[in-house]
Amino acid sequence: MWNELDVLKTIAPQDVTEQELKLFAAVCEKYNLDPLTREIVMTKEDGKINFITTRDGYLKIAMRDEDFDGIVSAVVREGDEFEIDASKLEVKHKFGIRRGSIIGAWAIARHKKRPPVIVFVDFNEYWHSTDAWRRYPTAMIQKVAEVAALRRQFNISGLVAKEELKEQQVVNETH
């Protein structure tokens, strides 16, 4: 039989302590996320640990709630018609004929028993000069919006999405 901490040591940063590994194992268990399939990863930078999950990890957590009612999102560009009506909890977004630079992204996470959570994230606040952001800026900013909406709608705390970390904290861009 395998020892869980020994397995986690093989995928965690080399300088983690046994206590940090136990904490990571507890977070994985709490959210039922599988570190072996990279639904969640542990990073350590300047002595600080982060538990990073993908947008799909957040979606997996939300989908376990029987009242999850979907998520909708899109990227807003210059030339689009875009409006959030906060009082009506509605987003009106029509793509423009000539779409320019990315302004940001929005997401709506729905729950059958609670009002929808609407989030808009500004592209300039999140963009970093990493390979993933340079190659896939629309996908990256849309993930940030979706994670923020899912986190708020389903009260997911203790995790961070890689797209939200500052450039110097981004350790592994394979998620």
Keywords:
single chain, 175 residues, alpha+beta, three-stranded mixed beta sheet, three-stranded antiparallel beta sheet, disordered C terminus
Descriptive notes:
By secondary structure, the protein is α+β, with helices and mostly antiparallel strands. The chain has one domain. It is 33% helix and 30% strand. The chain contains six helices and eight strands. It has helices at residues 4-11, 18-31, 55-63, 123-126, 131-135, 137-153; strands at residues 40-45, 48-53, 68-77, 81-85, 90-94, 102-111, 114-122, 160-161. The strands form three sheets. Strands 1-2-8 form a three-stranded mixed sheet. Helix 1 (4-11) crosses helix 2 (18-31) and helix 3 runs parallel beside helix 6 (137-153). The longest helix has 17 residues, at 137-153. The two termini are 29 Å apart. Residues 167-175 have low confidence and may be disordered.
Write a compact overview of the structure shown.
This protein is α+β, with helices and mostly antiparallel strands. It is built from 6 helices and 8 strands.
Strand content: 25-35%
N→C terminal distance: 29 Å
Which percent bin holds the helix content? Answer: 25-40%
Return the structural class: alpha+beta
Please tell me the total number of domains: 1
Largest sheet: 3 strands, mixed
Q: Could you give the count of β-strands?
A: 8
Count of alpha and pi helical runs? 6
- Rg (CA only): 18 Å
Question: Spans of 5+ residues with little confidence (pLDDT < 50)?
Answer: 167-175
Strand order of the largest sheet: 1-2-8
Instruction: Give helix and strand order, one letter per element, not per position.
Output: HHEEHEEEEEHHHE
